[in-house]
Amino acid sequence: MFIEFSPRRWSVATQTFALQVLIAVLVVAAGLLGAYVQARRAGAEEAVARATAVARTVAATPAVVTAVEGPDPTATLQPYAMRVGADSGTDFVVIMSPDAIRWTHPDPAQIGHRFIGHTEAALAGGTVVEDYTGTLGPSTRVVVPVRDGARIVALVAVGIRTSAVGEQVRAQLPGILLAGLAAAAVTGLGMALVARRVRRQTHGLGERQLRDMYEYYDAVLHAVTEGLLIVDLDGTLRLANDEAVRLLDLPADAVGRPVRDLGLAAPLTDALTDGEPHEDELHVTKARVLVLNQGPAMWRGRLLGHVATLRDRTDLEALTGELDSARGLTEALRSQAHESANRLHTIVSLIELGHTDRALAFATDELQVSQRLTDRVVAAVEEPALSAVLLGKAAEASERGIDFVVAPGSHWPRDVAPARDVVTIAGNLLDNAIDAVSASEGERRVTVDAHLEDATDQEPYAVLAVSDTGPGLPPGGVDDAFRRGFSTKEQGSAGRRGIGLALVAQSVERLGGTLEVSGPPGATFTVRLPRDGARREMT
To answer: Whole-model pTM?
Structure first.
């Protein structure tokens, strides 16, 4: 059976361990080789030093000087040289004449023959150190002169065979190998611990798997159209894709910082750090309406943190608000159609009964009431979008039996703010006012006042105030009035309950205006927008 040997398929931990083993083997082998070479060099140096010491000791011995000048130097010096060689651990001690004729030698048959080697430096008074092959084989030898005063009367050569030096080094090999094995064992244990840690940190994945995971996962994170955030158990942001950075306007160094230090709205910050699941929850930032979903991030049963997704619902929410206004206007028009039919039948019946004067008075009175409100709105408001909102809300209020009043002298100029923002601000404020008085048992009135307010150092403000005779805000509710989710109603549109005032606050802040709330009795919401609000929005 053929088994494919492909290191690329190994896990990162296995590859790391294999590379470390290879490096350790090379290091230990190089260390052993270096130790062996060093031992050989040290052995050679020790052999030279020992041979030099023995040669100089022999040359300085008076008995040697006396013997070389005697009639038979060999008889005296041969036993002495053999004894010195045995005692000093050298292989030969050769004493010779200045002409290099041997007087002593470990092999008596070589006595009387010429010394094989160089003696010129010794004859000049120096020392010869060399590796040379003589009668006993390759050796390291030292040749020094023997002096009788200033005269050189003999030469002494002391040598150690090269094989003996090698044997000495080989005797050290077990110790060297034992040290190498100990180093390898310690290194192997360290590498095993490192590999175990790497395997745990990489979850046993291979290099290709990690690369593919990073490349594809990173590409997916940056390609998805939803914002993606991962927050750990300590409330620190661990991941934010491009869309999340854009939606939340996060700083470049947001990842790695606590979520509470990122300047997000308090409700959104609480949702991201409370560790609870959230499903299709609306949050309002300074510029957007976002849908938040959040759940736990698990790995093999271990909770790592929480992952949240964000979807931009700003345009959809604005369109939904406009749709709600249009739906309300449609319902009001449908009701008015029924009411008009009833009134028309009344007029026809009055005519048939011969009460033409009463029929004319009844028709004229109804026409004047409707026309007066329309004329007042058209005369007071130059912005067509705001006029349409006011007329639609007036019709809805009339249907609910609510007195809808446009304050005398009201005036709202054209192009104070973009039409969408005007619809958002006025529509939500009027919706809240109408809802507030709908359940009231006393006076049911909604008042709209629009005018210009002079400023000392800049363009005048355009002021829009919406008042109602409802129960007003609850105690302490003014500070929470524009927080996402705040509502005085028992029920609201699915997913949109309490978001209207937050959208108003968002639009006002974006336009550089201010928003105030007063009451009870009733509630009055006052919006002040700079006259250059439309230009501010466009820039």
So the answer is: 0.46
